[in-house]
Amino acid sequence: MGRRGRITGAALLLAATAAVAPVCTPGTAAATAAGTTTAADATAATAGPAAETRRAAAELPSPTGPFSIGTTSFELTDPARADPWTPGRTRRLMVSVWYPAVPATGGAPAPYMVPAAGAHFGGPEGVGLINYGVTPGSTDWSAIRTHARTDARVLPGGPRPVVLYSAGLGDPRTWGTALVEDLASRGYLVVTVDHTYEASEVAFPDGTLATSVLPGMLGDPDLDIGAVLRRSMDARVADTRLVLDRLACLGERPGLPAGLAGALDLTRVGMAGHSAGGFTALQTMHDDPRIAAGIDLDGQLHYPGPDGRSGVFLPTLAQDGLDRPFLLLGTRSPDSGSYHRQPGWDALWQHSTGWHADLTLEGSRHGSYTDAESLLPQLARRGALSADTLASEVGTVAPARAERATRSYVAAFFDRWLRGRDDHLLDGPSPLFPEMTYER
Predict the structure, then answer these.
(1) Coil, helix or strand for 79?
(2) How far is CA 115 from its chain centroid?
(3) How far is it, in rounded angstroms, from Cα 60 to Cα 147?
(4) Of 245, 253, 252, 247, whose CA–CA distance to 265 is shortest?
(5) Model pTM?
(6) Share of the chain above pLDDT 70, in %
(7) How distant, in Å, are the alpha carbons of 124, 176, 257, 307, 414 from that of 137?
């Protein structure tokens, strides 16, 4: 898996998918599968001298909206669908819902990662090292706290628009928490999705930890990386459509905060994602009319050839274009920037009839639209990664400015297209955000 969670090199993504039957029953959890460890195994695997010393800590930026927020997590299974990465198993996912909540209700603030997941993410085989260069064992990821209370009471006043969020290749669903919390604090219900066996790790309620199969695949000299990316995108789109199906049945699921199902307005659904998650958002939007508007946060929109470097093969999304609104946010990474410089983005632009705009965050790198922007600078100051690694992941843009710009433009887009509220930030270049280059 390359250092970029992007769809270049040894990474993954997805294309068109068959429809997923809306099965509302939760199903049963699968037994431990290949690439799966128990929570105890994951903790033991990362224990050692580094784990016994004082570890670096960090904080997420506070949400900017007027509402307190709550969160709840649950498992989804699809008995009719074979898992694309583990033969003989059916597909199972973990999702979290983030929502406006009654203040001071529910449990304690939710951890950024549960202990087993945090131990693996921060260990020698986790994405903390592989994608972001954080020294294994240097950071207690489960000690980081979100601003959302677990199973807090749902704030009356719904139904509210829904935004789905998909993380980048290898990243867990938590890696966009700062953006997700901000949207929830502004009145959205946000649903984050883990793509099992592709994400670094997925912790299930039965105590098993499904770890990524991708690192093991990369040792194969005959690996067709383009084919793996297509397989990944197929899985991601199918995962997302399953989540959309099950959200319509949420009232049948026991144990969720009262009123959660009634708080979702599934006639107003948007989707955002980073890197492979951005590709996922727009490809799912192409394939499924339930998604009304989408945002791609620095996600490449073409497949490479078998070597992962040469060749440009356009997905149906880029060939056909979109007839609904979408926003492209690029960075100053070498393979990003303006849509003119990216073949998939350019093809999508030329073939689309829906409203669209392109923004580039100056001084940024690929991780700037994720929690890397807020967490990695803090960890670097505590010695968990080098200054050179930090610059390669998030660039030179000031973290507070990057966070504010990302949150403001994402909220402005969804406010405009899901709520009918236009603050005109998307009309053109804004003096409020000189670090954003605007194209339409």
Answers:
(1) strand
(2) 20
(3) 8
(4) 247
(5) 0.90
(6) 88
(7) 8, 22, 35, 32, 38
Strands 356-361 vs 436-439: parallel, antiparallel or unpaired: antiparallel
Alpha-carbon Rg for the chain in angstroms:
20
Provide the edge-to-edge strand list for the sheet that holds 436-439: 109-111, 145-150, 68-82, 90-101, 189-193, 160-166, 264-274, 293-297, 326-330, 356-361, 436-439
Contact of 27 with 93, CB cutoff 8 Å: no
Q: What six digits make up the tokens of 107?
A: 């449990």
Pairing of strands 189-193, 160-166: parallel
- Amino acid, res. 248: A
Angle at the Cα of 165 from the Cα atoms of 274 and 241, rounded to 5 degrees: 115
| C-alpha distances in Å from residue 53, one per residue of 40, 47, 50, 138, 225 | 20, 11, 6, 8, 39
Count the neighbouring beta carbons within 10 Å of the beta carbon of residue 44.
12
More confident site: 168 or 52: 168
122 within 8 A of 102, measured Cβ to Cβ: no
Q: Which residue has the tokens 């948007």?
A: 270
- Average pLDDT of the chain is 89
* Six token digits for residue 328: 């492209």
Residue pair 408/438 in contact by the 8 Å Cβ criterion? no
Q: CB of 83 within 8 A of CB of 198?
A: no
DSSP code of 259?
Answer: T
Please, what sign has the CA dihedral across residues 315, 321, 327, 330?
positive
Using one digit for the tens of pLDDT, what is the confidence trace for 287-343? 999 999 999 999 999 999 999 888 999 999 999 999 999 999 999 998 898 899 999
- What angle (nearest 5°) sits at the alpha carbon of residue 35, between those of residues 29 and 39? 65
